[in-house]
Amino acid sequence: EGKGKRRNPLHDFKKTRELMLIKVNKTLEVKTKLLNTTEQCAKRCSRNKGLSFTCKAFAYDRVTKRCHWLSFNSLTNGVRKKQDHAFDLYEKKDYVRNCIIGKGADYKGTISVTKSGIQCQAWNSMIPHEH
């Protein structure tokens, strides 16, 4: 990236138009604030700035310009999807991606079996194979 050019913080998020997540599990956390742009929401979510939890997604209300930072995403148990024309959902790609990039050290996806159905070896285990 060239000098003076800033990376768009939305690059790390998967956007789903007109979708909101509703928490059924009351222990899941949400924080909201008025912000003018989705870029500002994304930057704060990526840095977890001012949040007491790890931000995995945010929903932006286009009507009220309110950002809703979420400690969960669409794959989390205790969450329900709701069609809502006012919202766009932005989920961190690291948490919804079902592939490994590089050595997989930062993988946070949900796949834990091989294509043939064999349970994956835990990252902290050297059995049955060394890394």
From TrEMBL:
PROSITE patterns attached to this UniProt entry: KRINGLE_2, PAN
Domain Apple: start-end pairs: 8-94
Superkingdom assignment: Eukaryota
Keyword terms: Disulfide bond, Kringle
Domain Kringle: 98-131
SMART domains linked to this entry: PAN_AP
A matching Pfam family: Kringle
One GO CC annotation: extracellular space
Molecular-function annotations in GO: endopeptidase activity; signaling receptor binding
ATP-binding is among the record's keywords: no
Protein name as annotated: HGF factor
Organism: Nyctiprogne leucopyga
